[in-house]
Amino acid sequence: MARYVFAVQSNAADGLEQEYNEWYSGQHLKDVLACPGVVGARRLTLADKQILPTPHVFKYFCLYEIELDDLQTFIDALMSRAGTERMPINKAMGNSLPVFWQVIE
């Protein structure tokens, strides 16, 4: 069985940070965890201290751990649920950058 990480960098919409965090931690994580193959998730926020003083575009980062034979199964489930009652998208969601990584064994 292959293992993947679904890494999502994101921001709250302007002025909606509290609502964004409540929605993401309280509902969205559970909705994504209900997709086939998702075995874990962790949310992070950008630390105040960094090695390099590089500007960072995103404040939030979420790692979803996925284990399944065909990543397309997860992608299809995610896309069919996004924006429905099974996975509502809150207006507090700002921009995001989702990327899949395959775990090297």
Summary?
With 105 residues, this protein is an alpha+beta fold. It has helices at 17-33, 71-81; strands at 2-12, 38-45, 60-68, 93-102.
Description:
It comes from Steroidobacter agaridevorans. This is DUF4286 family protein. With 105 residues, the chain is α+β, with helices and mostly antiparallel strands. It has one domain (2-102): 2-Layer Sandwich (Alpha-Beta Plaits), CATH 3.30.70.100. Helix content is 27%, strand content 36%. The chain has two helices and four strands, in the order E-H-E-E-H-E. Strands 2-3-1-4 form a four-stranded antiparallel sheet. The longest helix has 17 residues, at 17-33. The radius of gyration is 14 Å and the shape is globular. The mean pLDDT is 96.
Give the rounded overall mean pLDDT.
96
User: What general form does the structure show?
Assistant: globular
Structural class designation: alpha+beta
The total of helices stands at: 2
CATH topology name, in short, is Alpha-Beta Plaits
How far from one another are the termini? Answer: 11 Å
Helix content: 25-40%
Beta-sheet strand percentage? 35-45%
Rg is: 14 Å
Number of domains: 1
Total beta strand runs? 4
> Order of strands side by side in the largest beta sheet?
2-3-1-4
- Can you summarize the main beta sheet? 4 strands, antiparallel
- Which CATH-level-2 architecture? 2-Layer Sandwich
CATH C-level class is Alpha Beta
Instruction: Write the element-wise H/E pattern from the N-terminal end onward.
Output: EHEEHE
Protein name: DUF4286 family protein
